[in-house]
Specification:
Elements lengths: L1 H10 L10 H17 L2 H12 L21 H4 L1 H9 L2 H15 L18 E3 H18 L3 H16 L11 E3 L19 H15 L7 H19 L24 H16 L5 H18 E4 L2 E4 L2 E2 L14 H6 L2 E2 L3 H17 L12
Antiparallel strand pairs: 1-2, 3-4, 5-6
Length: 369
């Protein structure tokens, strides 16, 4: 069913926002991974068509929201490396350098961490490390900017020290260093709840950053590997009897809580990729594959309106004018979406992780889009 689903989805896909955004980035990365897993050129063509319309001759990204200083926008830029390698078009190498320069100008907290967005001053959100760290790691490797690895280590160590809960091993969604936001704990500055997709972003940040670290960065590799093992083991304690994870991770019995698709797929992808890179026990590859199967059977539905991927948290954040207070009740108040790119793109990534681990089997060497 996933083959037909991806084909239909890409044929009718419309950009999620008119500017450079992370939702489209989920689909772009999913397509890149499916291309590598299957060799099907439809995936590569989708990515290159998307990028070619948005990159100017000087490498500037025409739809990039420069003044917003939004880490979310870096997710799309991970696809630039693929485009540069596939086409040899100098626009893409220029765009990589242009995007890296944007990151260097990003506002920072007093402790040196990058703000999540200019509209969220002094705030560090766990989503942000996923958006930016793998990009910076690949940029450092390709350019030889080895001094950037130290910064990456500082980012992850900060999250480990300031957002990890010592009792559960889970990570809070965000931190306000100034402790001024209504959602921030007055003592720690942290938000109140454990949101599944936030945990998923963190797991993928670890696997995807580790994938770009050279063997010479042994200390950083070991630190991130340890964080990955700890985060994976901690999350798996909260796996539901149906094999997935709840929107509010640690409160499965809370009224209105539900098994959320995108975060469960993020866990599946990270477990399979982490095990394939020998960063996690082999048994966790099978766990990730089982989570993927559970999503297929429980959340991917054939309907009269086509194939639908259901129970995707449409959006979640903190602060603003809509009362996003970081409570469990808040996360459960956000609407569920179907076929949202934050779910579909990661389903592609999870399927690709499974296929690549079994690519020696002839039945997997088929075109899926």
């Amino acid at each position: 069913m996933t083959e037909l689903f991806f084909q239909d989805y890409l044929q009718t896909y419309q950009p999620y926002k008119p500017y450079w955004n992370y939702e489209d980035g989920c689909v772009l990365l999913g397509c890149i991974r499916m291309y590598h897993a299957t060799g099907c050129t439809d995936y590569a063509e989708f990515v290159l068509d998307y990028l070619s319309k948005r990159i100017a001759e000087d490498g500037s990204i025409m739809t990039y929201p420069v003044g917003q200083y939004a880490l979310d926008s870096f997710h799309c830029s991970k696809a630039l490396f693929f485009a540069a390698d596939q086409t040899g078009d100098p626009r893409y190498e220029k765009a990589i350098r242009w995007q890296a320069a944007q990151l260097m100008q990003h506002p920072r907290t007093k402790s040196g961490m990058i703000w999540h967005k200019s509209i969220y001053p002094h705030q560090v959100w766990i989503d942000g490390v996923y958006m930016a760290a793998p990009f910076l790691a690949e940029y450092a490797r390709r350019t030889g900017r080895s001094e950037l690895y130290r910064e990456l280590g500082e980012w992850f160590q900060f999250l480990r020290d300031r957002l990890r809960d010592p009792e559960t091993g889970l990570y809070y969604h965000a931190l306000d260093e100034e402790k001024q936001q209504p959602w921030a704990d007055p003592e720690t500055g942290r938000s109140a709840s454990f949101w599944l997709r936030g945990e998923g972003w963190f797991l993928m940040a670890l696997t995807d950053t580790l994938a770009h670290l050279p063997e010479t960065e042994s200390a950083l590799r070991e630190m991130l590997s340890e964080l990955l093992r700890d985060a994976a083991e901690s999350l798996l304690r909260y796996r539901s009897t149906g094999g997935l994870f709840c929107q509010v991770i640690d409160k499965p019995a809370l009224s209105g809580n539900y098994t959320e698709t995108s975060g469960s797929l993020m866990a599946a992808y990270a477990l399979m990729r982490g095990a394939a890179m020998h960063l996690l026990p082999r048994s966790l590859f099978e766990t990730g594959a089982a989570i993927l199967r559970n999503v297929r059977s429980e959340k991917l539905c054939q309907t009269e309106n086509g194939i639908l991927l259901t129970d995707i948290c449409g959006a979640a954040g903190l602060g603003g004018a809509t009362g996003r207070d970081g409570s469990a009740a808040y996360y459960l108040s956000e609407s569920k979406a179907v076929n949202d790119p934050k779910g579909v793109g990661v389903l592609m990534s999870a399927e690709a992780a499974w296929m690549q681990a079994h690519r020696d089997h002839p039945q997997n060497a088929v075109c899926h889009a």
